[in-house]
Amino acid sequence: MTVPPPPAHPPLPEGTRVVLDAGVRRYGALLVGGAPVRAVRLGAGGVRLLEGGSFALDGTAGRAGLAAQLVGAGLAAYVAEEPPPTGDDVLVVVPAHERADGVERLLTTLAGAVRVLVVDDASPDPGPLAAAAARHGADVLRLPTNLGPAGARNAGLAEARRRGATYVLFVDSDVVVTVDELHRLRAAFVDPGLAVVAPRIRGLVETGSALTRYEAVASSLDRGPRSAFVAPGTAVAYVPSAVLLARVAALGEGFAADLRVGEDVDLVWRLVGAGWRVRYDAGATARHDHRVALGAWARRRADYGGSAAVLAARHGDLVAPAVLAPLGVAQVAALLLQRPVPTAVAGGASVVVAARLARRLGGDADARRTATSLTLLATWMNVEQVATGLLRHHWPLTVVGLATSRRVRRLVAAAVVADTAAGWVRQRPAMEPATYAVLRRLDDLTYGWGVWRGAVSERSVRSLLPAWRRS
């Protein structure tokens, strides 16, 4: 399936602001951040412009060029001076198979302020969905056969095109999103290269059982507290299709209708590959009715893991559970072997990499600070990759190692402690550490089981293998 490339566009209006992302770090004239992480050196004028973290376009080529460089690198985003009103240019599409109560809840929240199309994905009894839609002035498109979530969204996309909508908001029937949040998302399209923007997904209920409280901080739908551009292999590698506001012209054929899980990842990666930008806006929030029955939760986690093999067949190394460069290989070897010589080699490689990077960045004090920071970041990411591999993606192999090697047992014990502590500090769950640790390991086990099950089903180990890069 293909999506069209972004078209050429006229200059953005004067007054449009260019705002650095919160995750961008500054080292004098060097900016570090983006997706993937990169460093950009500013000229003296750029340093002055960005003293406050943002600047406004004024019609000059200099500011427009700097803006294009920063936004293209994922270091900044365009923000409209006056966000446009959300009107008939948006069609809300709600794919639903039964779940009339969820659709009723969503439509009540939207309060008739926008056009809504409920796509009935061949519910056995169409009456409840039709009645809920009628009570709130929403239209219904009933499909004669069940197409699954992706196919139902595509049917809604086709209807959006037929009605001349510029944007389509896909909202699942177990989600609540307000009109105010839609207005915020709509404002992001001041960026003509933006195809999709997605909000942060939080739980509809965040108190109660231990699993409810765990999902409140560790749901796969919640992409975190920091806005970012979305790209494979980055901190925000995908956004879920639970809520997506998309530019109709960018979507091409839409979702891969043959995928029941992972169709959102596939679409996002195809859009990014075609040159479009996809934005995660953590400042906008939607609420999702999380699965908090243990069996349903575990099955869903396994389904997410199972999508890795299918995605690997379509996107190759983008699905790899780890990405290793020469420095990463040395550091991983040091962790696995736990011997003085590999550890010394890894330490020496880190120093060499930092020195080379500092020279590439200009060799001054800012460059050395930036290179040191990036090398330390890479080291920590490699440690995280080892822990994730041992505890999540490759845990069946880890079990074998636990039974046969004291060295593996030491490494796994350290990985469990480090991973649990890092997750606890980052997520701050409202539960006892021991309960959190158990649920985190269960999360890993069910997801990893799904990855292996998918690999067997697809008869391919590609989703289990690391990707390699030269630097």
Automatic annotation (TrEMBL):
**What span is annotated as the signal peptide, if there is one?**
none
Give a GO molecular function annotation for the protein: transferase activity
GTP-binding listed as a keyword: no
- Tell me which UniProt keywords the record has, alphabetically: Transferase
Q: Name one Pfam family in it.
A: Glycos_transf_2
InterPro entries given in the database record: Glyco_trans_2-like, MftF, Nucleotide-diphossugar_trans
Domain Glycosyltransferase 2-like per the UniProt entry, residue ranges: 92-203
Does the entry feature the keyword NADP, yes or no?
A: no
NCBIfam families reported in the protein's UniProt record:
mycofact_glyco
The protein here is known as Mycofactocin system glycosyltransferase
* Encoding gene, per UniProt annotation: mftF
